[in-house]
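Hi L., both proteins are below.
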Amino acid sequence: MEVIFEVAFNGPKGGYVALDDISFSPVSCQNRTELPFSAVEAGCNFEEDFCNFYQDKEGSGWTRVKVKPNMYRAGDHTSGNGYYLLANTKFTSQPGYIGRLYGPSLPGNLQYCLRFYYAIYGFLKMSDTLAVYIFEENHVVQEKIWSVLESPRGVWMQAEITFKKPMPTKVVFMSLCKSFWDCGLVALDDITVELGGCSSPERL
């Protein structure tokens, strides 16, 4: 195997390209500019704050709420007495309103297991009332990796998703108000991100 460096100029005036200090090593390269993955920083139970999650600057669709006022008598998922996030779009938002919750940046080329708990109330149709997307670093949408199809109302449910992307990405939770009469409440709690696939599901 040989390595060839090629230089091409588009104009007749040419140009200059400098090259120096080329080296080879028998061990794999490490990207020193990319921060290592931290499961602690990637997840949140929202007991103290939003952790490393944040929202769109133009709106605040997600709010930290406690047991009272609370749409669930059982309280949050963590302890029943703590905080969780609530996206309240019931009769307050325009059709098509989307509440986005952005997660911290995750290093690329690693397999992750995303787990979280959610509860939904008030929507006429469940499909896509809560969805999870993968965004690139510059907030460009890559793909939807999960969405609600059907779910019991007002009950904490667990979701888990295995994903892997070559570039650094962010997990984004979206709550969608489809129409004035089809908006509702979406609760989110105990988000965790771990390395590897979701091979052994956790239970409530």
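That was the first. Here is the second:
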Amino acid sequence: MDALRSLVAGLLLCTGAGWSQTQPTVDPSDPLAVVRAFLNAWRVEDWATMQGLSHSDSAREFNTLIQNGRSSPAYSQLTSGPLWQGLQSWDGTLEPARFAENADGSAAIVRFAERHEAGQSAVLALALGLENGGWRVWGPHTLSLEEYSSYPLWQPTAQPVATAAVSVDQSDPVAVARAVLESIRSGDVDTLHALCVRELPDTVRTRRPDDAANFEPPTRSQIAEYMRECQSHPSVATWNGELMPPRYTDHFGIPVARIGYGQGTASWGEEVVYNVAVDLINGRWCWEDVHTGGTSLAEWSGFATSMASDASGLGDEPAVIDRTSARAVARAALVAYRDRDLAGLVAVANATNRALLGEIERQGSSHPRYASIFGGARWAAVQGWDGQLTVVHRRQSGGRQEALVPFHWHESPGPADVVVLTLEDGAWGFEDVATIPRDELSALPAE
């Protein structure tokens, strides 16, 4: 079983110049038919057909690799070595598929050749996964004859049936949150996969092309692992089925609903709300995260109780920010910084930074400070911010009052990354993003 779960890790992907004009008609319920079509395409370097027959966990990789053509390392891996040699000697016959269930639903292996070396025999096979009711290829794999023989023969009557499209009202964030929690408790990976954030809003793709290019939806394997982590958390295990009315915020400019499912005390002693976060993506609420660590009551109370009337899948920061609230200014600064929104940073900056940031906004990446601001450890910390802000610490420094708002904690006993604000004429202004020792921060007054 463990070997089957690791098949994807050994996956060899391919690319090249071969493009088929038409995709073959293949019965996806028959693993042998899928394997036969895949092997025939592989033998003639028909990468497009192979991509069409591949599992979503691996199919998307073709898009990147195809751009590199025959110069891609994956191309040489697929057209040389024992697997390629075994493919060239394949006589067109296939053994019955062997089958086993795993955490992601199901897996099958089909042997197409054998390799003999130093008195040892190895099986050359394709690994498949069941996806949306049909078999899809994960990739080629080599395994020992003993391991291969340990898996039972696949029988059509024993084939697991993938969960049909979920019937959850995705116009209702509470309904989605309930389905997420129930699926985690019951181990329903298919429903979690169907409800997760699998795309970016169209407007984000246009406005943030770098994010769109790097975005990858979670695989079933990743969801299964995350599900197991959530299952072990007491807040999920003891959930009584009740949900709180949603609170609203945003993440990367996308409207987010937070639905509380319980309250408790965090490891640092603060009262928190355990909650599910769902994002509004192109008109549908999609599961983003389960905050088993909790959100502080102070921050929870700062979330809106209703969604802005113009929110449709891409939110904007409110035009007016309460400059008397250090937490509100810190949040606005982090959102602007994270989005490379220099105009947004200028709007909440203190007098010291306002002129400099305005200059960088006008000159863009040609400004000598641009690379240092949008790079390095500070930039990485901001990009990793999970949207939560807990406490606000105060201190006097150089005759002025400062607020330090932690947004990222390094592994204990490491430091914290904080937003530094200064108070000017009763209004908080953005000064910097800094790192401060944990004990030094804890010694400061907090609110």
